[in-house]
Amino acid sequence: MDSLVLPWVNAQTMSMFFEEVAQRHADEFVVMVMDQAGWHIAGELVVPANLRVVFLPPYSPELNPAEHIWEALREDCFANTVFADLDAVEDTLSSGLLAIESDPSRTRQLTGFGWIESISLNAN
Fold first, then answer.
1. φ, ψ for residue 20 (rounded to 5)?
2. Dihedral angle of Cα 111, 114, 115, 120, to the nearest 10 degrees
3. By C-alpha distance, which of 100, 121, 116 is closest to 34?
4. Whole-angstrom Cα distance, residue 72 to residue 6?
5. Which of 90, 96, 99, 105 could connect to 77 by a Cys-Cys bridge, CB 3.0–4.6 Å?
6. Which of 4, 47, 49, 54 is nearest to 31 (CA)?
7. What is the pLDDT of residues 32-78, one digit of tens each?
8. Which of 5-9, 65-69, 86-90, 114-118 is modeled with the greatest confidence?
9. Strands 51-55 and 30-34
10. How far apart are CA 14 and CA 67, in angstroms?
11. pTM, whole model, 2 decimals?
């Protein structure tokens, strides 16, 4: 699981994320499944050579694995919490993301949809 905590979302920051993922997985070919948020489909996106984007159908958040990660973060880290400042929010978000990333079985439980599992099984 790769993530960046950035101050906004747009084509430029999405391109930064793509580049980070491409560098972290330089010896791999990455297929990234995403919804069709405006910054995901912007014409200015720069997609590295070792990365391909597959878009989910519009208005189908239930198919998006990332939505389940966000739901877990909201429940585990943010529910009924008042933060002193934005730095505290960012610290909590970063800690929550690292906790999920460091637990591969939980990550798989949250994101291992049947259609994803069948793709990865068929790729081997």
1. -65, -45
2. 80
3. 116
4. 19
5. 96
6. 54
7. 888 888 788 888 889 999 999 888 888 877 788 888 899 999 999 99
8. 86-90
9. parallel
10. 17
11. 0.77
- 90/23 Cα distance (integer angstroms): 24
Cβ-contact 116, 31 below 8 angstroms: no
Q: For 12-21, 35-44, 91-100, 104-113, which range has the lowest pLDDT when averaged over its residues?
A: 35-44
Residue keyed to tokens 């699981």:
1
Helix/strand/coil for 103: coil
Overall size of the chain counted in residues: 124
Angle between helices 104-111 and 65-73 (to 10 degrees): 120
CA 107, CA 36: separation in Å to the nearest integer?
A: 22
Structure tokens that stand for 66 in this block: 């990332």
Which bin fits 45, alpha (ψ -120 to 50), beta or left (φ > 0)?
A: beta
Amino acid at residue number 71: E
